[in-house]
Amino acid sequence: MSAPYIPQIRIYQNWLHETRGLSFDNYDALWRWSVTDLEAFWQSIWDYFNINSPTPHTAALADKRMPGAKWFPGAQVNYAQQVFRHVDAAAAAGLPAIISHNEKSLADGSPARELGWPELRRQVASLALHLKAQGVVPGDRVAAYLPNIPETMVAFLATVSLGAVWSVCAPDMGTNAVLDRFRQIEPKVLIACDGVTYGGRDIDRTAVVAELRAALPSLQHVIIHNNLGATNSIAGCADFTEAAARNDAETAVFEPVWLPFDHPLWIVYSSGTTGLPKPIVHGHGGTLIVALALKVLHNDVGCSYEANSLGERYHWYSSTGWVMWNAQTSGLLNGTTCVIFDGNPGGSKDKPDWTTLWRFAAQTGTTFFGAGAAFFANCMKSGMDLSSCGDLTKVRALGTTGSPLSEESQRWGTEQFEKIGTPDIWWCNISGGTDFAGAFIGGNRELPLVPGEMQCRLLGCAVEAWNEAGQPVIGEVGELVCSQPIPSMPLYFWGDTGNARYISSYFDMYPNVWRHGDWLKITPAGGCIIYGRSDATINRHGLRMGTSELYSAIEALPEVLDSMVVDLEYLGRESYMPLFVALKPGVQLDDALKARLNNAVKTALSPRFVPNDIFQVAEIPRTLSGKKQELPIKKLLLGQPLEKVVNRDAMANPACLDWYVQFSQNYLNTRKT
Fold it and tell me: What is the pTM of this model?
């Protein structure tokens, strides 16, 4: 499939002109309208996507407070209802709802699984009726411990179709990490799997499920999906396949219930690096309206059965533990075929294979291919050649998020696609968060593409970079803030009395202005660059800098697999900045390599940012969603105890912490002498 003839954002602007008489000379003018007349903009999104409600709303935005804005009061919606409106048209066009592979099916050459839209609706209806029979009512929590498979999407839609509240943890998370989340929300039902396959290994999870069952007294019902194909080994549990197997008159007439616009949809969690994870509640209406605007207008992902984007197949690699799973699922809201992969994108640890996801994309005919920025960096460093991965000519867009994408990675990907006959591949680099289930900054098909930058601030998002005086700046690095409400901002945190945690998380520095915790620079041309977390900032000799530029310089060296830097300036203490590097197998950190690393920093940034010391490590500590744990290691090196700064169960590689604990003890002892 070639790129759509008309970009989705252009179709929207044409519609604005025809129905509202609004025309804009450029994107900046369109964006400024969208953030100064919030009510008109979000009403236009409601109308453009023809969102249904059996009752009218009295205003698009009745109360502009932040937090606590009131969106579309009087309207009734349901996320599943919005998905199901596409069933008949998509089925008539012969297009599937979900296409999926896992490690085993891709490796053995099996065809991908396809789930049609009518079958998706039938399975959702069957499982919803099963949950209803177990006493599930609106507001009840249904927790899931499931991987990135079609059954998880079915379970989610079944849950929310009843007005129950969904919450999922990935099966690579250990018992304690899951309980830290689910204990807070007291689920009535648990839907879990017997195990997962990852990196070429089957990992049994029945013991974890038994522990969850025993430790969650609120549970009244458990459903098991036999993901590894074994028999149900946990007594007293219902079988997922049976629960989703009904096909009768009742399933045929099942309809999702209509709910208030701000009815809770799901509970997602902060990364949980310190303390208990924040259980963030988003609403049906806010989530779906923001997802439609982001996915269609900015990611340029069209409806699969419409002529302009016929056959669209949308993939964003994720585990269920990352909000990008929610973003992937949102493709269904616009009638788009979702293409999902369950497994390790880099093959097994013993035999890394970074062609895995590309071969998957080629076999499934993916048109939009998204992944974390680290994935593209790993592909580049592996030396892989896209031309060996099959027919990727249908891919017309590449999406990245999770961390800043380096200029080198973007240039590498562009060159690879040029070699296979796709010149000027479009990169949709976005930055947002779990916090509001959306993006602040992202792509625009019609704007110039500058490697290392994101193209624009998103429509409806009043994003600015603020300096230390709380003033917006252009061409300078500042705090990323959002000065106006967005419909998908959290309703509240579950169990948060008086919104105390919610307010302290986003509104402690600037009352009534959302502070996101990232360093941002907005260029004079409107492009955006994220420089890392503002709470893991480097401050060397009076110059502040986020960490991403440093990593770009360091990780451009072929010997370096991963890196992390922390700045230990604290309460007037002189800055001490160690650099930790994980190197390719067989490479040792000698004086020559140290000199090259220092020179790379000098050349790319400034001699001011040369690290005080460089240490070779086996691994850089990362969260389950892949983020470097700069702040916990910084706190550890400042003398705080490990148990106060990091949650091992929220880590992808907790064993590596032992080295950093020993290092911190040596460092602190040295400072005392």
Answer: 0.86
